Amino acid sequence: xxxxxxxxxxxxxxxxxxxxxxxxxxxxxxxxxxxxxxxxxxxxxxxxxxxxxxxxxxxxxxxxxxxxxxxxxxxxxxxxxxxxxxxxxxxxxxxxxxxxxxxxxxxxxxxxxxxxxxxxxxxxxxxxxxxxxxxxxxxxxx
Length: 142
Known about the structure:
By secondary structure, the chain is mainly alpha-helical. It is 58% helix and 0% strand.
């Protein structure tokens, strides 16, 4: 029902007007309630495909994002690793610059500053340097 002048506008469970008193009273509004209202009121979402997808989404019938769910603790750990990297890299680059300016020869076994940062952080966090590199490049590449 879309006729706002109707006395049943705020009592009809398939009308938008039914939502306002519930929201004002702090009552729960369920996904199924919204799906029912979107289905009954074609003028709310004119496009039929979008309307169908919205209803399916509200009813939980759409597929979720694939892959592993990221835990908040894992996200925090990854951000901590990136902050360590951002803090350590400039110092290692400055040290390498001083060595270069002093004329010291770089040996093949010496790591580049970024690789050294990955190794140091990996040792500190208990993971291999490649994993640290992947975490840093994933977050910094976003």
